[in-house]
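Long-time lurker, first post. I've been practising inverse folding by hand and with some scripts of my own, and I keep getting stuck on stretches where the C-alpha cells seem ambiguous. Below is the full C-alpha cell string for one chain I'm working on. Before anyone asks, I'm not after the true native sequence, just a reasonable design that respects the backbone. If someone could post their per-position residues I'd love to compare against what I wrote down in my notebook.
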C-alpha cells in the first residue's frame, strides 16, 4: 500500500472475498431474524452515490456510527451486504480479529487502540483503501461500547486523523438503538443523518467535533422516535420471530 511504513506485528489486513461475503451475509441475516422481533430504518436517502456533485470524482464515505451493543457489527454487515450492496470495510480489535479471522474475508482489518504507532498505521492503511475510490468504511468513532442513553457523545480523534489523511471524503452520521417493550424479543432502530463533506481544510479537532455533534443529533432524534414508538418515517427492514404469547394466540385460534 502506498504511503505505508512496515506493518506492525499485530496487524491483520482486509482480504475480502465474494464467496465469504455471500455466506456471512446470509448467516448474519438469519441470526438477526432469530434474535430480533423487528428492525426499523430511516434516512436512507442520505446513503447517496459516492461521487462529488461538483467534480464527478470518486468520493469515499465514512459511516460514523454509535456503538452501544455487540450487535452493531452484525447490523453493519447486513446493511452493507444485504440492504445496500456497499463496497465497505471496517475496523476490528486485533485480538478479536485474530480469534475470528473470517471477518477479514468480509472486509475487516485490525486496530490496536492502545498502541498509538500501531493505531496510526491502521488509519494510514484505511486511507490507502479509501482514497480516490467510491468505497465505504464503517467506523465506531467513540472507540468503545458506550451506553445508548449517555447524556453526551464524544468521539476519539481517530476519525479526524483519518479524514485529514483522505483530504476529501464524505461522513454520514449513523445511530443505532435497541428497544424491548411490547415483544419478547427486542427491536432495533437505525437512523442515517445528513452527510457532510470534508474538503481537507479542516483540522483534526474540528473534524472530530463536527462528527461528535452530528452523531449526537442523529442519536437524539432516533431516541425521541423510539421512545414515542413513532416508526411512521421508518422502513421495516427486518422481521423476525413473534413472541411466545402471539404464538399461543395463533394456536388457540386454530
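-- Answer (accepted) --
I ran through it position by position. Result:
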Amino acid at each position: 500500500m502506498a504511503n505505508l511504513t512496515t506493518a506492525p506485528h499485530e496487524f491483520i489486513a482486509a482480504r475480502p472475498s465474494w464467496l465469504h461475503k455471500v455466506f456471512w451475509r446470509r448467516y448474519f441475516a438469519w441470526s438477526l431474524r432469530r434474535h430480533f422481533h423487528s428492525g426499523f430504518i430511516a434516512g436512507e436517502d442520505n446513503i447517496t452515490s459516492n461521487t462529488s456533485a461538483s467534480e464527478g470524482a470518486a468520493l469515499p464515505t465514512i459511516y460514523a456510527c454509535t456503538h452501544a451493543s455487540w450487535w452493531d457489527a452484525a447490523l453493519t454487515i447486513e446493511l452493507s451486504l444485504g440492504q445496500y450492496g456497499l463496497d465497505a470495510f471496517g475496523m476490528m480489535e486485533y485480538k478479536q480479529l485474530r480469534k475470528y479471522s473470517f471477518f477479514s474475508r468480509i472486509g475487516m482489518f485490525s486496530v490496536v487502540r492502545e498502541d498509538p504507532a500501531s493505531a496510526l498505521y491502521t488509519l494510514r492503511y484505511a486511507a490507502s483503501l479509501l482514497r480516490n475510490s467510491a468505497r465505504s468504511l464503517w467506523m465506531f468513532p467513540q472507540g468503545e461500547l458506550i451506553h445508548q442513553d449517555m447524556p453526551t457523545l464524544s468521539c476519539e480523534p481517530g476519525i479526524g486523523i483519518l479524514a485529514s489523511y483522505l483530504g476529501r471524503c464524505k461522513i454520514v452520521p449513523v445511530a443505532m438503538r435497541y428497544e424491548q417493550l411490547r415483544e419478547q424479543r427486542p427491536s432495533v432502530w437505525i437512523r442515517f443523518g445528513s452527510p457532510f463533506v470534508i474538503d481537507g481544510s479542516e483540522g483534526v479537532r474540528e473534524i472530530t467535533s463536527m462528527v461528535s455533534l452530528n452523531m449526537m443529533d442523529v442519536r437524539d432524534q432516533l431516541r425521541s422516535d423510539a421512545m414515542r414508538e413513532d416508526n411512521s418515517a421508518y422502513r421495516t427492514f427486518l422481521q423476525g420471530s413473534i413472541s411466545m404469547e402471539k404464538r399461543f394466540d395463533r394456536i388457540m385460534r386454530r
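A couple of notes from the structure itself: Residues 51-55 have pLDDT under 50 and may be disordered. The longest strand covers residues 169-179. Happy to go over any region you disagree with.
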